[in-house]
């Protein structure tokens, strides 16, 4: 075959392979967009585990009607404009890839209104084929509808699991998010019935939310940690050793508000527990690491599950020492924070 330039739709469908694995990845990208737009409330309506319908409505800033076609164009973003912005990026999104990817493998529509606009506007995309912008009433904010995910990519659609399984993945991701953003109200419905609701509470992670997400027993055994040094801050909750798990299912790590997996930090936590946990048992924790965004590269993976630290060793040792100190103090009988 001669070399040829691929058409845009196909390029987006190829990118979708990396960004859109299953309905939960769509929910993740769309809710992150809502949060980046400053939403205080996000409604998530699902049908058939999200494979039939994912509808996300937010009360964020909204998009001007004439920018809707840009929003679903590849590499179009309002979040960065230069390499310098990228290096200090504070938003969850920045690649300008999610919407075109999702819209290329679903029946997609986006309706939005900015606070200052007289009326809303809507744009449909069918399997990557973009329609025209039409006026449509909408309160301030944005609604994105994703129907029939992978309808035009049978090989991917075939790999979708049972409704319960897909819903489980969505809820697990929302749980992660709910822990990081207790200030945002999240409402979920599935097949027309309300299924989950996290009320927007406050800036602080309330024990209510800890209870709801990790269970009462975790909350009862949780030690509050908050320590800063060398421009790093680690805060959150770790379970006392008496509460431990057979698997790593209650290990939540956030870096600058983004849920990530990191071997080095996970290792540091395990090390801190090494003397106080039985071999093979796993600690439970919800930890937030905050640092200058310039010290961490978030542009490592299209789905942004991983980051790269400029000074990984320093961070490892900081996490280890902070938690080891906290655990040692409880053993000595002087909890550094109160159990929640
Ligand atoms: P990214 O989030 O990386 O910028 P996306 O493809 O997810 O890329 O979104 C493209 C652009 O569309 C965003 O930069 C933003 O300007 C706009 N956008 C998407 N979703 C929303 C939303 N819910 N509210 C306001 N603007 C949005
Ligand atoms: Mg995005």
From TrEMBL:
Q: Which gene encodes it?
A: mutL
Annotated DNA mismatch repair protein S5 domain ranges read 210-328
Organism field: Lysobacter koreensis
Taxonomic lineage: Bacteria, Pseudomonadati, Pseudomonadota, Gammaproteobacteria, Lysobacterales
Which keywords does this Swiss-Prot/TrEMBL entry list? DNA damage, DNA repair, Endonuclease, Hydrolase, Nuclease
Q: Which family does it belong to?
A: Belongs to the DNA mismatch repair MutL/HexB family.
| A molecular function GO annotation | endonuclease activity
Q: What is this protein called?
A: DNA mismatch repair protein MutL
What the protein does?
This protein is involved in the repair of mismatches in DNA. It is required for dam-dependent methyl-directed DNA mismatch repair. May act as a 'molecular matchmaker', a protein that promotes the formation of a stable complex between two or more DNA-binding proteins in an ATP-dependent manner without itself being part of a final effector complex.
């Amino acid at each position: 075959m001669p070399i040829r330039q691929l058409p845009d739709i196909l390029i987006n469908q190829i990118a979708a392979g990396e960004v859109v694995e299953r309905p939960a990845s769509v929910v993740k990208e769309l809710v992150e967009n809502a949060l980046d737009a400053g939403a205080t409330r996000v409604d998530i309506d699902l049908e058939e585990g999200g494979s039939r319908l994912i509808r996300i409505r937010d009360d964020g800033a909204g998009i001007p009607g004439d920018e809707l076609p840009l929003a679903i164009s590849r590499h179009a973003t309002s979040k960065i404009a230069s390499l310098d912005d990228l290096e200090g990026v504070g938003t969850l999104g920045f690649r300008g890839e999610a919407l075109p990817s999702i819209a290329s493998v679903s029946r997609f529509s986006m309706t939005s209104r900015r606070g200052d606009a007289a009326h809303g506007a809507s744009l449909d995309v069918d399997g990557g084929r973009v329609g025209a912008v039409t006026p449509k009433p909408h309160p301030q904010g944005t609604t994105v509808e994703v129907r029939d995910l992978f309808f035009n990519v049978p090989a991917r659609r075939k790999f979708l699991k049972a409704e319960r399984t897909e819903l489980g993945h969505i809820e697990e991701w929302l749980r992660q998010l709910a822990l990081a953003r207790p200030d945002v109200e999240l409402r979920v419905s599935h097949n027309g019935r309300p299924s989950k609701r996290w009320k927007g509470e406050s800036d602080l992670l309330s024990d209510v939310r800890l209870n709801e997400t990790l269970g009462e027993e975790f909350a009862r055994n949780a030690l509050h940690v908050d320590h800063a040094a060398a421009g790093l801050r680690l805060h959150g909750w770790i379970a006392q050793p008496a509460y431990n798990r057979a698997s790593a299912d209650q290990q939540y790590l956030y870096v600058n508000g983004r849920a990530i997996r990191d071997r080095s930090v996970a290792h540091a936590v395990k090390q801190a527990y090494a003397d106080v946990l039985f071999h093979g048992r796993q600690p439970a924790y919800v930890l937030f690491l905050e640092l200058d965004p310039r010290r961490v590269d978030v542009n490592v993976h299209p789905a942004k599950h991983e980051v790269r630290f400029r000074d990984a060793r320093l961070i490892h040792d900081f996490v280890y020492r902070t938690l080891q100190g906290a655990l040692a103090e409880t053993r000595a009988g002087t909890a550094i924070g109160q159990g929640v």
